[in-house]
Queue: 4 jobs
Job 1
Amino acid sequence: MTLRVVSFVASFVFHSYIFLVTFCVLQFSVQLPHLPYEVLCELVPGFKLTCAMSFFSLIVWVALYWQIAPILWELASLEGRPTQQARQPTKKPNPARASAASYSGRSLSFRRGFPVRSLSSNSTTHVNVHDSTEDPNPLFILGITEAEGCFDIPIMNSKTIKTGFSIVCRFRVSLNHKDSCLLYMLKVYFKCGNIGKVDKKGCLTWEVKDLKSIHSKITPFFLRNRVRDTMYLDFLSFVKGVEMVANKQHLTAEGVYSLRAIAQAMNTGRETPEGYRPEHTVPSSSNYIPLDPNDNSGFVTGDGCFSLIVKNDSPHFGRAYFAIDQATTNRPLLESMLPLLGLPGQTLRPNGPDNLRISTQNRATIIEVILPFFEKYPLYGAKRIALMKLTAVLGLIESSIPKDSKQLRWTPELKAKVKAIWSD
Ligand SMILES: [Ca+2]
């Protein structure tokens, strides 16, 4: 935001300067300085027009700049200039401190090259928030879609279309604005779609609505990489809708009627049969596709949660927590995740009437199972930063336990260190 304001002010000053120079040159060109504007307009041919044009171009430029600049910066960052921070070698030998020191800024936009201490293998690895030099794994993209994506067919009233309705097939992914880098990653990966503005809930949406991109990029991708559970039914309805729109059936009254029926029975309007599982997710089926760990990472990037208790007076200060929350309709997907994450003995816990939860707050499980999993199948964006902070905190806790007692004693200094890492 600061960069945006600074460059905006700089650009404004620059354009005002150009405007003034034009004004002065015109004055000196008739060798009659300090004349009133009305007199200049009469003396200098085209003076009024020149002033109006300069002012208009300034206004247009300011408007465009305010809209386009953030996109250009973020795209430029996606091209991958290593930041000052990434170029600096890590000086501190303590693994927890090294990890903690590697993220000193609050913005997570495209900082790259974090040294992260592996608690499991006792080695330091180099991980990236997002490396634009290589495409993300398609199954990671599948996982994000399963967590935060949506296929739908919005139908709007229209006065210009003969049937009275405008119908589009839309694919979108909504994420917290802190994860805007992931939406740009999707935009760059699919080479289509638009990212809107941050909404009231602080979310940003990348959406694809043009039929050509949907037909040539989106549906083929999800035919190759199939979503699971009830979302698969929504995808099948979506494909049917796309075919109808491609065949121009949406321009006939019968087509509108059929598409409306399809659209209303999708997503929240769907009545899913109890225990529904698509064939490709049933282990005994010949078409079975096992859940991929990268799919799991994509899903956790969207719907996972890493947290830490940092309330000074809490008896559980320093307790780490990992959870995935999901609607009960996605029970099979959560069940497939448990063994993949290395938590085969765990059961799904109800979280309210319509949600289920995978969770663990056991420090040893998080250190020995969860962290190594996401080290192998990396997360991106805000969840990655949270995971790295948790890694640093757990490293600090482990190194603070006296060897003889095995019991951690929380000193005010240690609490302050943990809070500093977590709130960074
Ligand atoms: Ca979700």
Job 2
Amino acid sequence: MPAAPNSWTTMELKERQVITLFPSPLFVGKVSDLTICDRIEATLRAMKKAGEGTQDETFFMTRDDIHKRPEMKELSDLVLSESNRVLDFYRIKRQSHYITDMWGNITNPNHRQALHIHPNCLLSGIIYVTSPPDSGPTQFGDPRPGARMLEPAVTEMNQFNNGQFLVAPDKGVMLMWPSFMPHAVERGRNRTHEHL
Ligand SMILES: [Fe+2]
């Protein structure tokens, strides 16, 4: 009868590797000329003044078709050219692509918006046209169903154990992401309660 193996305590894997499956990219960049932000802000404030949108005490939102307006063309062109790069990144076959909806928000720095996705779109994005101090960050949530079912304590947060990612608003920064990725606006720390 062969002797019982006793080498099991020293067994280990060789050729270890970590393969990251199904990543969720966030595409980030900053406009080459920040004055575009001032032009957009002026346009949005004019829309607000004209009552072209919906409003309450902390929040103004334009209609969702502002990409069709001539004064938004420079932003629409930028969105189309940058999304073209993203579609290339994904190697997506296409004859053309287009913007389905675009809208602007003017909010109190402490405004909060619940986690949501944008169905029936491939890509979603934001451009920050102004960034008051202590504005609420944009929060991205883990898009994987069930991935946060157990949340053990960790010694250090990293991209493999963190269920959220925060981006502080920064004038001129544009973000794009796959539309299945949940996102929200967290409450800011600004306590001036500045009105719109
Ligand atoms: Fe959104």
Job 3
Amino acid sequence: MKSLKLLKKYMLKQLFLEAHLCKNLKIILSQFIGTKYAIGVSSGTTALHLSMLALGIGPGDEVIMPANTFIATPWGPSHAGATPVFVDCDPKTWQIDAAKIEDAITEKTKAIIGVHLYGQPFDIDTVKKICNKHKLFLIEDAAQAHGAKYKTQQLEVLVKWHVTVFILVKT
Ligand SMILES: Cc1ncc(COP(=O)(O)O)c(C=O)c1O
């Protein structure tokens, strides 16, 4: 696939740091993912923070996420003034335990950030159902799972708000 080859070239040469190259990278990334748009920002932390602002999440709101994640996941909501609420993880998968999410939902809950940790997708189907039932936004933090698949589909096409990161140390 042409876009995959170009993406590999950009990643290996770390060509995502300059503005004009960044524009190409966004086009290549959206082709690779199969979406109309991809927006580049300075870091995954910024992307999570901006996602909160774009969704109108701020002071007084709560955002649910797995207890086992990188610090940048809670930084997204806390930089926006919202409160991160941690839900324990499934000891078998190390991903958010979807069965425990509903206990953490309050009238202040606005969103769930699902994290695909160590390249492993969380249980998207169940978490999506919970979000639909409680009218919550679902953001996926795929900083560690670029190009990963859930069942047979690419992660990026399954959830409306998808955050990923380009840096060579990531999964
Ligand atoms: C799960 C997860 N989310 C978000 C981030 C944030 O990315 P950045 O370091 O680009 O701010 C990272 C970075 O390691 C991460 O592992």
Job 4
Amino acid sequence: MAKKVGIVMLGAGFMGKAHSNGWMKVSKFFNVPYEPVLKVVAGLEKDVIGQFAECWGYESSTLDWKEAVARDDVDIVCVGTPTNLHKEMVIEAAKTEKRFSTKSLRPCHARKLLKWPML
Ligand SMILES: NC(=O)c1ccc[n+]([C@@H]2O[C@H](COP(=O)([O-])OP(=O)(O)OC[C@H]3O[C@@H](n4cnc5c(N)ncnc54)[C@H](O)[C@@H]3O)[C@@H](O)[C@H]2O)c1
């Protein structure tokens, strides 16, 4: 049975939609031993963030991305915000020992930022 992994989506814009779509469909494209569970989406659009969550199947929504990243039921932080925010968000995810996914910052760069040894 696939292991459930909790996803937090940071950003509820176009990339938030694109990545949510990816999480929903990944097991149709690939034989993965994980089942993504869309736990929470964070964004600044207070009027529509709840609607985004409902439309894409997230269990909840928030305006506070740090609160979302800190949740115990979240395993993977998917960053879909403007690029200048990725560094801070990825570092926060790493501090809470979450996995993260971002296009603008590769794991090797993050390790350098965090001064972690390359494995
Ligand atoms: N749209 C594309 O086709 C595309 C393709 C590749 C890369 N990108 C890059 O992805 C990034 C996002 O693009 P987009 O089109 O989804 O933008 P967008 O403006 O549609 O969405 C950005 C989202 O980030 C959220 N956000 C902004 N500041 C935040 C903060 N401080 N805390 C929490 N959430 C915050 C906004 O509320 C919004 O939901 C951009 O940097 C863009 O260059 C976009």
